[in-house]
Design a protein that fits this description.
328 residues
């Protein structure tokens, strides 16, 4: 009996040792990616570059995903198109406007996310619902103010001063560069630090209520909670000047973060703004773990051209007025 117990104990010790040598996923995915309080560990640096477009192209209507061969052909055409654009810049004559170098500045995604034809997963057609008629008027006004018709710094867009916007959102949407985000979490807070514009959202996870409706913020007022193993962040109270594809201050955003493996995070967001779209819509982005750190987003530092831009516009106003042109 004593010998059998000794053998059993030895076998158990051997099993524990073998399990310890297994990869984290094989040793038990349910426990290896969790924080001390038992929730999924979402921390780390994640990249959300993708070649998948936001909306499904019309020629792929009804086709949610591509075959492996179709996806490979899509990615090859995309690579060839980008190479051709870069070649045009290299062969341009002296003095030509070259724009950005794809090879130097851009980090577009090279592969389709799960061979999908769109990031939008709802509506099922992969298309963002139609916009309301008033959205066009808002967009035209914003475009006008971004030009030389601004009468003060308050009229200029926040994005041109690298304060917010681009792919950092919220919601986060893949773009040409800086598609990286670092997540931090404690028992009562989550921090979303975007490489783009160094935007850091500190989101309470302690059940506190939202701010009163009249208190508005550039990136809205966010509150987080757990829905099983999915982190859910609800954001409201946006400023009217903050715009997602023409959205208004009535924008209501729900983001969902779900750990899908050692190196994969599924990011899903639902947008609802009845004053902007005919209905809500949802997109899903696959994020992949990266060992690279976030880098400094040096953009507006040392840029003192705002005063020159405004004074130049006022000088043009004066010239036009002197010439009898009353247009603003």
């Amino acid at each position: 009996m004593t010998r059998r117990l000794s053998n059993a104990a030895g076998a158990a010790a051997m099993a524990v040792a073998l399990v310890a040598l297994l990869p984290a996923g094989a040793a038990g995915q349910e426990t290896s990616f969790r924080t001390p309080d038992g929730h999924p560990d979402l921390q780390g640096v994640w990249n959300f570059s993708t070649a998948t477009p936001m909306e499904r192209p019309e020629d792929l209507a009804g086709q949610t995903t591509l075959t492996a061969e179709e996806a490979a052909a899509w990615e090859q055409r995309l690579a060839e198109q980008r190479a051709a654009n870069e070649s045009e810049r290299e062969d341009a004559p002296l003095g030509a406007r070259l724009g950005y170098s794809v090879r130097v500045w851009f980090e577009h995604g090279h592969t389709l996310s799960e061979q999908r034809t769109s990031l939008v997963i709802d509506p099922p057609d992969g298309r963002i619902p139609a916009v309301r008629p008033e959205v066009a008027a808002r967009a035209e006004l914003r475009s006008l103010l971004r030009g030389r018709h601004a009468h003060g710094p308050e009229d200029r867009g926040a994005s041109e001063r690298c304060l917010l916007g681009f792919n950092s959102g919220p919601p986060m949407t893949p773009s040409a560069y800086n598609n990286n985000v670092q997540l931090f979490q404690t028992a009562d807070h989550v921090v979303i630090l975007n490489e783009m514009v160094h935007n850091a959202r500190i989101v309470p996870l302690d059940g506190r209520p939202h701010l009163p409706a009249h208190l508005r913020q550039w990136v809205g007022d966010s509150r987080a909670s757990w829905d099983g193993d999915t982190l859910v962040i609800e954001t409201r109270n946006f400023l009217g000047e903050t715009s997602l594809r023409g959205s208004s201050a009535n924008l209501h955003l729900v983001e969902r973060f779900t750990r899908a493996g050692a190196d994969t995070l599924i990011y899903e967001f639902t947008v609802n703004d009845p004053t902007s779209w005919a209905g809500p819509w949802t997109a899903q982005v696959q994020m992949n773990r990266t060992s690279e750190p976030l880098y400094e987003y040096a953009c507006h530092e040392g840029n003192y051209s705002m005063a020159s831009s405004l004074s130049g516009a006022r000088a043009m106003d004066a010239w036009e007025a002197a010439a009898g042109d009353d247009s603003p």
